[in-house]
Amino acid sequence: MAIRILALCGYSQNASIFAKQVRSALLGVGGSAAEFKANWSALPAKYQAFQIAGADGVSLDGKPIGSATNANGATGAEVVFVDPPVVLGESQLSPIQVKEVAAYAKGDAAPNVAVTRSWWTAPDRKTYQYFDNTVKYLHEYLVSNEPFDGVIGFSQGAAMAAALAALLEKPGLHPDFPANDKLKPLKFAIAVGGFKPRSEVPDFTNYFPLQTPVLHVVGKTDPVVSGKASKQLQDACPSSRVETHEGGHVTPGGEEWAGFLSEYINTVGKGGKAEDVAPLSTFGAARARL
Asked: Is residue 83 part of a domain?
């Protein structure tokens, strides 16, 4: 059975944008470029009830929540990208985020590509608004679509991935994520440009330390998530492995990363240890699974 990975996008993104963003990095997980195709489709009606307008005046009309699954054979991983349930308005985005979304949507006729979303909003940085709704949504999705071996998240999605790993690792941690025999702890989590959830409401104190193995992918020049914020998440995950890249707040790609991530996922996802995977620097054209 293929390794299955849940993919959680960053703030202002969506399932389709994240699929495009990580395509280069995940080429080694599932074969050739032709095999890695993520086709978005709307989720069943029961999931649409979780959609929330993140600000006054934001319309949900024509913006169904959906998912995209890469098409590959049983030899590689199946990566399932899910839309966050909170729909954002342009006033909640930075000028850079507006430009990024427009760039990803250019030439793509699918209307969902331009819909900006998030797992929560933080108007005062003390409260993660709509977090409980997101927890309910992910619980419903996982129960109906299990099993998943791992999770990968970018930025806010990486923080959500860490929280999700904790919810699966510690049944009963959140009242809206009840224990279920179908749900098992994840074998790994990959946090790209991630940070430790740090609101007062909800209180994440009991979510950490996290025992799930976590691979932290850190940009040396990240202008969004500081080195201090990244280190806080690393320190909260005793089974951490850290790999850096020369870029900023992005998901790195290319042959080196494709080879490394392929090896990492296929090792840890099958019960191996993160330390069994060779250093990133040893991967390249000769070792990438392309």
From this structure: yes
Domain tally, the chain:
1
Instruction: Report the alpha-carbon distance of residue 33 to residue 27 in Å, rounded.
Output: 6
Cα(36)–Cα(127) distance, integer angstroms: 37
Average pLDDT, stretch 116-132? Answer: 94
Angle at 159 between CA 252 and CA 77, to 5 degrees: 55
Residue 228: CATH number of its domain: 3.40.50.1820
Residue 167 falls inside a structural domain = yes
* pLDDT for the residue numbered 73: 42
Q: Does 230 or 125 have the greater pLDDT score? A: 230
Is 59 part of any domain? yes
Task: Assess if residue 288 is contained within a domain.
Answer: no
* pLDDT surpasses 50 at 290: no
| Contact predicate 196/229, CB 8 Å | yes
Determine the structural domain holding residue 187 and report its residue range. Answer: 4-282
Nearest to 254 by CA among 282, 284, 218: 284
Q: Among 58-72, 115-129, 186-200, which stretch is predicted with the lowest mean pLDDT?
A: 58-72
Confidence band of 77 (pLDDT split at 50, 70, 90): confident
Asked if 150 contacts 214 with a C-beta cutoff of 8 angstroms, the reply is no
Q: Which of 134, 115, 147 is nearest to 12 (CA)?
A: 115
CA distance linking residue 40 with residue 100, whole number of Å: 19
What are the Cα distances from residue 233, in Å, to 1, 119, 175, 192, 215?
31, 18, 24, 11, 11
